[in-house]
Amino acid sequence: MGDYHGTMTYEPLNTLKSVADDVWIVDGPVIRFGMPWPKIPFPTRMTIIRIGKSDLFVHSPTRLTEDLKTEIGKLGQPRWLIAPNRIHYWWTPVWKAAFPEAEVYLAPRVKEQAGDRIDFPYSDLDRERGYPWDAQIATLPVTGNYMTEVVFLHRPSRTLLVADLIENFEPDKIPFWMRWLVWFGGCLDPNGGTPRDMRLTFAKQKSRFRTAVETMIAWNPERIILAHGRWYDKDSARELRRAFRWVLN
Description:
Blueprint: E1 16-20, E2 23-33, E3 40-51, E4 55-59, H1 66-75, E5 77-83, H2 92-98, E6 103-106, H3 110-114, E7 123-124, E8 137-142, E9 149-154, E10 159-161, H4 176-185, H5 196-199, H6 206-219, E11 223-225, H7 236-243, H8 245-248
Parallel strand pairs: 4-5, 5-6, 6-7, 10-11
Antiparallel strand pairs: 1-2, 2-3, 3-4, 8-9, 9-10
Helix pairs in contact: 6-7
């Protein structure tokens, strides 16, 4: 991973932005990810949910700056650091070092991917219930062969959190050479969706994947926070039906 300096970011970066009661996002830097060449630039985003007066649920941590750490301290105390799939773990060790009392939860195969970067105790995100946040946040593992992604619904605000199951890159915020690739991959705004290459990981789990999508639709979320690209702030059940029509149909 490495930084990319371009127009893809959602300024201001590395600062809390309120999107609903007790829900904040942080837009992070753009990173390059993928094959040795070309490395594809991705904007990053994390979500923080406050439970009770001070317990913070930190989904897909992004870069932690000193100013952001100060802002976090005013919200409460990070209690749970969430790596929702095997790609979204990179800054988790940094947050664990900064907040050593926080518990780390890893989706399946994150440890395999991360190797020695995860050198501290953690718990598995491998089921739907039995977590300390159950009363406020629903947990749903979406199982694939290469990758399992765990999605979450904050019930009070009806906010759905996804990492890579839906990506939605705005054409005017990505390099010109990347637009055709993103369109072909099925991730160009306003018609973001699951990248074509990622769909392959769910091909042999299609029935289970469809059931998970139907669960998300039944949740009837008010908004969908994405890790990459423009997130959806309205008509979210309709957006889910559109984004996942490749499996629903």
